[in-house]
Amino acid sequence: MDFADVDRDELERLKLLYRPLTDAVRELVDATIRTEVDDDVIREAHTELTDVTATLRDAGLSGPFGTKVTGDGISIAWGNAAVGTRNAIAPPLTIEVDDDGRHHSTVTLGAAYEGPPGLVHGGVCALVLDHVLGMTGSADGRRLTGTLTLKYLRGTPLGTVHAEARTISVDGRKATVRGTLSDADGVTVEAEGLFITPASRN
Ligand SMILES: CCCCC/C=C\C/C=C\C/C=C\C/C=C\CCCC(=O)SCCNC(=O)CCNC(=O)[C@H](O)C(C)(C)COP(=O)(O)OP(=O)(O)OC[C@H]1O[C@@H](n2cnc3c(N)ncnc32)[C@H](O)[C@@H]1OP(=O)(O)O
């Protein structure tokens, strides 16, 4: 993994710099889906946005952001599709960990995450659960998703959802993790995953 030569103060400064930009892009995505303004306003917005994008591309990485680690051991995965600080596609998830190892996250999924009308896209449910279960199974070492099985019990309404997960067993490089996605009325998706530390990283 690449090294990021930043101390905690600089990391905090960068987060404060990028978070509002990413939030603004998230708002833009939502507005793009839901706007009903006149055609000429759409064309004007398109021109302005093209200019903004060109400005941001004045200097940039040649590839994806990747994961970097600071001298303090903090992982920076700012392009990550689930949690990336600089990724407007990320909901973004914030994961909390209880003393007993349960990982959980509450997040609001708006119009950008729609699948069936008014409901969260099944792949987005999978994204949320993969990440929460993956972090749970990686509590004692980095593991990748080997197999993820989901049971969609009913549609997950757009809005605030809650994901949680627990490690059921650890067998060397393999961890079995179970979790759920819920709305206010209860569980909508059940998940079980096998997370594996790749042999090549042992
Ligand atoms: C902010 C997060 C960003 C990251 C930050 C970085 C660090 C932070 C630290 C920790 C957090 C890290 C991650 C967790 C976070 C989020 C979760 C999201 C995870 C993903 O988004 S991740 C992308 C999708 N994921 C892949 O891209 C995997 C592609 N794949 C492979 O990389 C290999 O395929 C691998 C590693 C799966 C196995 O490779 P391998 O060579 O090590 O396996 P090997 O053959 O040695 O088998 C050993 C034993 O596992 C069994 N086994 C093998 N494969 C299996 C499978 N697929 N299903 C079920 N069982 C399987 C065998 O049957 C054997 O079982 P047995 O020992 O009993 O015989």
TrEMBL record:
Alphabetically ordered keywords of this record: Apoptosis, Cell membrane, Cell projection, Cytoplasm, Fatty acid metabolism, Hydrolase, Lipid metabolism, Membrane, Transit peptide
Annotated SUPFAM superfamilies: Thioesterase/thiol ester dehydrase-isomerase
Ranges of residues in domain Thioesterase: 118-189
Record GO terms (molecular function): hydrolase activity
InterPro entries reported in the protein's UniProt record: HotDog_dom_sf, THEM4/THEM5_acyl-CoA_thioest, Thioestr_dom
Enzyme Commission no: 3.1.2.2
Membrane topology qualifier: Peripheral membrane protein
Main location: membrane
Keyword Hydrolase: yes
Annotated compartments: Cell projection, Ruffle membrane; Cytoplasm; Membrane
GO biological process: fatty acid metabolic process
A UniProt-annotated Pfam family: 4HBT
GO cellular component: cytoplasm; membrane
Reaction catalysis annotation: decanoyl-CoA + H2O = decanoate + CoA + H(+); tetradecanoyl-CoA + H2O = tetradecanoate + CoA + H(+); octanoyl-CoA + H2O = octanoate + CoA + H(+); hexadecanoyl-CoA + H2O = hexadecanoate + CoA + H(+)
Alphabetized PANTHER family for the sequence: ACYL-COENZYME A THIOESTERASE THEM4 (PTHR12418)
Family: Belongs to the THEM4/THEM5 thioesterase family.
Name assigned to this protein: Acyl-coenzyme A thioesterase THEM4
Organism lineage string: Bacteria, Bacillati, Actinomycetota, Actinomycetes, Mycobacteriales
